[in-house]
């Protein structure tokens, strides 16, 4: 079982930036970020393939968020720029095993809170 630990969340003013990190205890293949705001369903934010050659973003983050990874460190990142109050949520990291197809995940982190003030 691979453990995922997110970090980098916090309080930031609208227009600011944050970089989230997710460290995995073992190898993961496709990885993604999701978020859940109070009273809302968990939603997809971004995904990246093992090689980093394929990425996908939700419309809400397109052009503002960038997902990347460092396989030598078993870490995936989410750079978030031009943050808006509606980006406030708990952000979760997800990872897929070698048998999982792109966009499907077996492992989940505990989440990190991102709060954007107006």
Structure, described:
This protein is mostly beta strands and 118 residues long. It has strands at 4-7, 10-13, 18-24, 31-36, 43-48, 55-57, 65-70, 75-80, 89-95, 107-108, 112-117. Strands 2, 4, 5, 6, 9, 10 and 11 form a seven-stranded mixed sheet that branches. Strand 7 and strand 8 (75-80) form a beta hairpin. 34% of the residues are buried.
Range of strand content: over 45%
How large is the radius of gyration? Answer: 13 Å
State the order of secondary-structure elements, H for helix, E for strand: EEEEEEEEEEE
Q: Which percent bin holds the helix content?
A: under 10%
Low-pLDDT stretches = none
Largest sheet: 7 strands, mixed
Count of beta strands: 11
What spatial form do the alpha-carbon principal axes imply? Answer: globular
What is the SS-derived class? mainly beta
> Helix count, per DSSP?
0
Mean pLDDT: 96
Tell me the span between the first and last alpha carbons.
Answer: 40 Å
Please outline what is shown here.
With about 120 residues, the chain is mostly beta strands. Helix content is about 0%, strand content about 50%. The model has no long low-confidence stretch (mean pLDDT about 95).
Question: Which features does this protein show?
Answer:
mainly beta; seven-stranded mixed sheet
Secondary-structure topology with pairs:
Blueprint lengths: L3 E4 L2 E4 L4 E7 L6 E6 L6 E6 L6 E3 L7 E6 L4 E6 L8 E7 L11 E2 L3 E6 L1
Parallel strand pairs: 2-11
Antiparallel strand pairs: 1-3, 3-8, 4-5, 4-9, 5-6, 7-8, 9-10, 9-11
């Amino acid at each position: 079982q691979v453990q995922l630990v997110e970090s980098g969340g916090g309080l930031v003013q609208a227009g600011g930036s944050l970089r989230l990190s997710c460290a995995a205890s073992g190898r993961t293949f496709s990885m993604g970020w999701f978020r859940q705001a109070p009273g809302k369903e968990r939603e997809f934010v971004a995904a990246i393939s093992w090689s980093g050659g394929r990425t996908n973003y939700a419309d809400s983050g397109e052009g503002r968020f960038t997902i990347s990874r460092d396989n030598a460190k078993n870490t995936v990142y989410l750079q978030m720029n031009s943050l808006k109050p509606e980006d406030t949520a708990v952000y979760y990291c997800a990872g897929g095993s070698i048998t999982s197809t792109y966009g499907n995940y077996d492992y989940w982190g505990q989440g990190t809170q991102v709060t954007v003030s107006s």
